[in-house]
Amino acid sequence: MVKLLVLGSGPVFPYPRTKTNRFSDYLDIGGYEEKFELHDDIICNLAKKGGKERRLRSSLAVITGSGTFLIDAGPDIIYQLAKYKVSPDVILITHNHSDANFGLKDLKGVEVISEKAGNLKLDQKMDILGAVVTAFRVAHAGNVTTVGFRIGLGKKVVAYISDLASLRGVRKWVKDTDILFADGSILDQNMPSHLSIIDQLKYYKKWRLNKVVFTHIGHKTLPHDDLQKYCRSIYKPVDIAYDGQNFKI
Predict the structure, then answer these.
(1) Please, what is the angle between helix 224-234 and helix 197-207, to 10°?
(2) What's the number of domains the chain is made of?
(3) Side-chain-facing half-sphere of 99: CA atoms under 13 Å
(4) Whole domain around residue 142: which residue ranges?
(5) What is the CA radius of gyration of the chain?
(6) Using DSSP, how many helices (H) and how many strands (E) does the chain show?
(7) What is the Cα–Cα distance from 4 to 70, expressed in whole angstroms?
(8) Residue 68 located in a structural domain
(9) In the sheet that 125-128 helps form, which strands lie side by side, from edge to edge?
(10) Residue 10 φ/ψ, nearest 5 degrees
(11) Residue 23 covered by a domain
């Protein structure tokens, strides 16, 4: 049995946010809430109380019988690994943005597979701790090359695409997956670097995907339970990820 553990489900800045909302505010992720005045809005106020609204930067741990690999290692990774008692053997990086790779400096001695490192080849199967992993190109930010991952786990298949601006060319990588982790940054208004949840769901419903789990949940969406209810009103097999969520497959 393989375990998928959501170490973080948030975007570039965690929740609750600070009023200044500077990258440096969150470097002490375990103590920043005592140091700074916090943002006053519905999502951040709920996050102050804990629960599913409290989100650190997105990362997924895939725990197989042969070890553990991560997808992305952002600024919160050391805190996340300690909290969930995870020790990675390999780290896969989706793209060269701080919320995906800033934590690599704190993980010396762990094998890193990324385009920047030069050891990640597109559309080629890699055997990683018993999983068959294939990286594929996705559109995100125009000046940053970005990949998604298709992960074969025995008879099960998972795909992970936390940041994307377009679904062009993506269907063949996700059409028969058991779980697709998808970009939850924006609810209903597209950005140049992120496709909205609503526009994604139009395709996922048409493609009849088995299960969609939105992660990288953005600030301009909805509280967790409301967002999940709304998404399920469009397409029933949808979950909204939360920190600490796990799936056994």
Answers:
(1) 40
(2) 1
(3) 22
(4) 3-18+28-248
(5) 17
(6) 7, 13
(7) 10
(8) yes
(9) 125-128, 131-138, 146-153, 156-160, 179-183, 212-215, 238-240
(10) -100, 175
(11) no
> Quick check: is 234 in a domain?
yes
Reading the block at residue 68, the tokens are: 């553990």
| pLDDT tens for each residue of 54-108 | 999 999 999 999 999 999 999 999 999 999 999 999 999 999 999 999 999 999 8
Length of the chain: 249
Q: How confident is the model at residue 148 (pLDDT cuts 50, 70, 90)?
A: very high
CA distance 77 to 103: 6
pLDDT number for residue 171: 98
Amino acid found at 113: I
Pairwise CA distance, residues 167 & 175, whole Å: 12
* 3-state percent helix, strand, coil for the chain, nearest multiple of 5: 25, 30, 45
Burial class (CB in 10 A: 0-12, 13-18, 19+), 141: middle
Task: Note the pLDDT of residue 143.
Answer: 85
Q: What is the CATH number of the domain that holds 138?
A: 3.60.15.10
Calculated CA dihedral for residues 183, 125, 106, 247, nearest 10 degrees: 50
Q: What angle do CA 179, 120, 180 make, to 5 degrees?
A: 10
pLDDT mean over 186-193 = 92
Question: CB neighbours (10 Å) of residue 1?
Answer: 9
Contact 84, 35 (CB under 8 A): no
Q: Write the DSSP string, 17-29.
A: PBSS--GGGGSST
Report pLDDT digits (tens) over 12-57. Answer: 999 999 999 999 999 999 999 999 999 999 999 999 999 999 999 9
* Alpha carbon distance 158, 174 (integer Å): 8
